[in-house]
Amino acid sequence: MSRPPPIQPDTEPLLRFEFVRGMLAALLARGLDITPYLQRAGIAADSMAQADPPGVTTGQYIALFYAIALDLQDEGLAMFSRPFKPGSFALVARVGMSAPDLRGALVRMASTVNLLQDDLQFALAENRTEAGLTMRWLHEGRHPQPFLLHTLVRVFWRLAVWLTSGALRVGHFDFAMAAPVDAAEYAVAFPGKRHYGQAVTGFWFELGQLQSPVLHDDMALRAFLSDSFGQIIAPPRLLGQVSQEARNVLLRAYPEWPDVHAVARQMHMSRATLQRQLAGEGSSLQRIKDQLRRDLAISRLSTSDTGLAAIAAELGFSDSGSFQRAFKQWTGKACGEYRRAR
């Protein structure tokens, strides 16, 4: 296993605070106290009252998700009428992976998620040229949280892309709601045409892609789920195409940590070409590794009682001490303090 060098300073752009407001919207609508969750994620409790609060780091955003989901035992963050119990997303992903092709995966996932909640009807839709996974809101007179619709489309679209090893190419995204005032901000999250004011929410692609084979196994699924909330639930990082592919190579190899030569071979390019293209996107393989290790560390400390030495080894650190120093640098909290607060 190649041991990474010391952590580089994190220059990842901050996420807009509106993403935090969206994540907390359902809790506020139910009159729940959000202060403990903000504190758990290292976000100033008075930020919600500020007219223009500062952005948050991706690590803080992921930590906020885990703080809410684990406390409420609800991966849906109180946005469904009944809890989306922990493990529900993993179940949907596993059901999809059991199908031979994308058509079967979408049908099976839609049936499963329809059993897990009562607010949206998921279905595979087809016409002469397109197919899509659609989500129809079932409650007249009560509107879903915009954050919920944006997040669900991203979750199931990215899961479908993963199941087909990146083969799926989406033509457009539909949303059964009015366009938000900051609609242009979602161009990064949804790289395709976005249509608002539609009858149903979902994503659409060429009909022939339904025959795309599902290409993953249990080991790949475990790696994917280890980083699922960092990769899918969180707003997208401003990663270029090469940077995203390099991250995917690292994730497929987890818990191994291939060096730049091995990653370049996996991407069918020379080391120099990989480094040059990453630099052109304002990134580097080490920075991508550090961001991935941070997200995985938050996941492991939030959802397991695995010892720090074992987590350090999984994440490619030489010892527990170096891992703990890195985690403190990433989150501003010691591992033990972070774990006790969950």
Features:
15 helices, 342 residues, alpha+beta, globular
Helix count, per DSSP? 15
Main beta-sheet annotation: 5 strands, mixed
- Overall pLDDT: 86
Low-pLDDT segments, ≥5 res? 1-10
Shape: globular
Count of domains? 3
* Percent in helix: 40-55%
> Which class best fits the helix and strand makeup?
alpha+beta
Instruction: Sketch the topology as an H/E string, one letter per element.
Output: HHHHHEEHEEEHHHHHHHHH
**Strand count:** 5
Q: What is the beta-strand fraction?
A: 5-15%
Instruction: Give the C-alpha Rg.
Output: 20 Å
Q: Tell me the distance between the termini.
A: 31 Å
Largest sheet: spatial strand order? 1-2-5-3-4
Describe the model.
This protein folds into three domains: about 15-70; about 90-210, no CATH class; about 240-340, Arc Repressor Mutant, subunit A (Orthogonal Bundle), CATH 1.10.10. The longest helix has 19 residues, at about 285-305. Strands 1-2-5-3-4 form a five-stranded mixed β-sheet, with helices on one face. By secondary structure, the protein is an alpha+beta fold. It is about 50% helix and about 10% strand. The model is unreliable at about 1-10 (pLDDT under 50).
Tell me the layout of helices and strands.
Layout: H1 17-29, H2 35-40, H3 58-72, H4 88-97, H5 102-116, E1 120-126, E2 130-137, H6 146-163, E3 170-175, E4 193-196, E5 201-206, H7 218-226, H8 228-233, H9 241-253, H10 260-266, H11 271-280, H12 285-303, H13 308-314, H14 320-331, H15 335-340
Parallel strand pairs: 3-4
Antiparallel strand pairs: 1-2, 2-5, 3-5
Helix pairs in contact: 3-12, 4-5, 9-12, 10-11, 13-14
